[in-house]
Amino acid sequence: MTNIKELIITQPDDWHLHLRDGDMLNSVLPHSENHFGRAIIMPNLVPPVVTSQDAASYKARIENNLSKGSDFTPLMTLYLTEKTDAADVVNAHGSGLITAVKLYPAGATTNSDSGVKNIENVYGVLEAMSDAGVPLLMHGEVTNSEVDIFDREARFIETVLAPLRQRFPDLKMTMEHVTTKDGVDYVKSQDKNLAASLTTHHLIINRNHLLAGGIRPHYYCLPIAKREVHRLALVEAAISGDGRFFLGTDSAPHLAQDKESACGCAGVFSSINTMSCLAHVFEENNALDNLEGFASLNGPAYYGLPLNKKKIRLIKQDTAIEYPEQIDTPNGVVQVFTPGFAFHWSVEILS
Ligand code: NCD
Ligand code: ZN
User: Which among 88, 182, 250, 289 is annotated as catalytic?
Assistant: First the structure.
């Protein structure tokens, strides 16, 4: 007897995505387009997307790479620097060009050298954003070399986020790719203007997957995967139906040769199989009913955007289905995230 389950949900969005530029953009974009209605596009290009002009030209490059008839919408962001012009940010948001501004503490992750060294130097911009209702997205890790890499998120909450929330209570903030129980608990303790995105891979891997029995460079990402107790807290938050938690894949493609190296770079590429992975995780936790909230409803509600009109159909197949293990780009291959279980959920966009 076949055991087919079927789920039809509002088309999801990806609230944290790296699309890169040039050949890489061209190679990875179809995989987001095929599933998601919209995505918040990270601005950490080299050089970063800092001004409204940068955002407008990056948006045009993305749109030029969309396939014919695609209605995928890139939601643009600006990379906050200590030189950011508040008026430029407010105007770019007011005109609909950007959706949010991204804070990278300097040196926190891939291409974050131009990030903020001293948060006080951006108070003026944050004040203007708070007044104009421009959301602040945060890479929530401190970068002091004396702080252990596994503690950097918890330390950020204590030393940066909590004081920032006190100073700017009306600024809408998102803690992106939360990886700790500390992060989940902090978000739950706040009743307005704070939400968190969760990645697919952090719901599935812990630090043992990365480090035990051999180092797995394709599981290396930032923030780094933590202990199992933290992964369980993330799953609990994702499946809970709590509107403060939503999907941001943080799908971050790098060439395999750059990850499989003596100093491999951080980032997991998961946009291809994310929805199939999530259906598996939610089913395993008897929470399929809350998948739509996490992937398709909570994000738009938090950002005050309409829901996607399209639906997707997820079907549980008896026989495992295949996703490519890697995708080709003109400069080499990108390894696709492997969750360590067979895929049984197929995904189809309905018009
Ligand atoms: C991201 C990248 O490669 O741009 N890497 C990652 O591990 N997530 C940067 C980021 O979002 O931290
Ligand atoms: Zn990211």
Answer: 250
Domain ranges across the chain: 6-350
- All residues at 6 or more sequence positions from 96 whose CB lies less than 8 Å from its CB, including other chains: none
250 noted as active-site residue: yes
Q: Whose CA is nearest to atom 4 of ligand 1?
A: 110
Point out the ligand 1 atom lying closest to the alpha carbon of residue 253: 3
Asked if 295 and 243 count as a contact pair (C-beta separation under 8 A), the reply is no
- Alpha-carbon gap, residue 72 to 269, rounded angstroms: 19
Question: Is the shortest distance between the CB of 221 and ligand 1 below 6 Å?
Answer: yes
pLDDT digits (tens, 9 = 90+) for 285-309: 999 999 999 999 999 999 999 999 9
The pairing of beta strand 343-350 with beta strand 311-321:
antiparallel
What is the CATH code of the structural domain delimited by 6-350?
3.20.20.140
Inter-axis angle of helices 228-239 and 274-284, nearest 10: 90
**How far, in Å, CA of 30 to CA of 15, rounded?**
17
- Residues whose CB is less than 8 angstroms from the CB of residue 347 and which lie 6 or more positions away in sequence, other chains included: 35, 275, 276, 279, 312, 313, 314
d(CA 21, CA 31): 15
* Ligand 2 center–CA 2 separation, angstroms: 39
Contact call for residues 252 and 266 (beta carbons, < 8 A): yes
Q: What is the tens place of the pLDDT at every residue in 42-89?
A: 999 999 999 999 999 999 999 999 999 999 999 999 999 999 999 999
Helices 52-65 & 86-94, crossing angle to 10 degrees?
40
Distance 48 CA to ligand 1 centre (A): 13
